[in-house]
Amino acid sequence: MTTRLSTPWWLPRDPDPAREAVGSREPTAVLDHSAEAVRNLAARTRGGDERERLRSAHALVSAAVRPVYALDELQPASVTLRRGRGSCSQRMAVLEATARSLDVATRCRGLLVDGRFWYPRFPRLHRFVPDVVVLAWPEFRVEGSWVPVSHLFAPPGAGAAAFTNRDGETLFEALARGAVSLEDCTGGCARDGHDEAAGLADRVVADLGRFDSRDELFATHGQTLCPLARTVVDPVTSRFSAGWVRPGTPRAG
């Protein structure tokens, strides 16, 4: 069973899949690409086009930032880089900030995910898992089109086992093997049961639409946990290792 006690229930989280956003290359409080740490990482990317450089940035972030169970969605990308550890969401924020530093516009899609998708990570703490998790899913303006983060790599589902959160692999690393596809999900999955083999797309319960930045998403709909819960829990969980890297995942050279 999940809990609503730690969730900021007073914030609006109504589905709005038609909401659009133009995106931006500008720095934000979270995507602080003017910071030296982000600029240095962007300078290390390699590739002949934007897509290749973003793949290179993903590998660099994977190598530089250890996956942990951090909870603060508003942590600046430069802080995550400096600490050398971050959640999958914080690592994606670093990737977005790096993209903007490379003059690639980004935006994000807001999704609500059934909290039970995280049960395998916390087998003895189900009652403390939030009812829903607010997920910021990045999109990048590449060659004149908006490309979801999963489409930077192999087409999702092209022979890759779906990411189910069960074997220790992280969401951030799973992107590189085409294991995640959220592009066609519309939300509203069945929540009266829990299929242990279900992929992430199967656990999306609502589509909040698109936002110019993750800053705007979380300002509108709030973070997954209320401020008190984050203050108490984050200092502890942000140091717990969140998984391993699947063998064969591209790493920074």
Describe how the helices and strands are arranged:
Blueprint: H1 36-43, H2 50-64, E1 66-67, H3 77-83, E2 85-86, H4 88-101, E3 106-114, E4 132-142, E5 145-148, H5 171-174, E6 204-211, H6 214-221, H7 227-237
Parallel strand pairs: 1-2
Antiparallel strand pairs: 3-4, 3-6, 4-5
Structure characterization notes:
By secondary structure, this protein is an alpha+beta fold. Helix content is 26%, strand content 14%. Helix 1 packs across helix 4 (88-101) and helix 3 (77-83) crosses helix 4. The chain is globular. The termini are far apart. Mean pLDDT is 83; it is low at 249-253.
Radius of gyration: 17 Å
User: What sort of overall outline do the alpha carbons produce when their principal axes are compared?
Assistant: globular
- N→C terminal distance: 43 Å
Mean pLDDT: 83
The unreliable regions are 249-253
Sheet of most strands: 4 strands, antiparallel
* Strand order, largest beta sheet: 5-4-3-6
Number of DSSP E strands: 6
Q: How many helical elements?
A: 7
Give the DSSP E fraction (strand runs of 2 or more residues): 5-15%
Indicate the structural class: alpha+beta
Question: How much helix is in the residues?
Answer: 25-40%
Listing every helix as H and every strand as E from the N terminus to the C terminus, the arrangement reads: HHEHEHEEEHEHH
Compact overview of the structure:
With 253 residues, the chain is of the alpha+beta class.
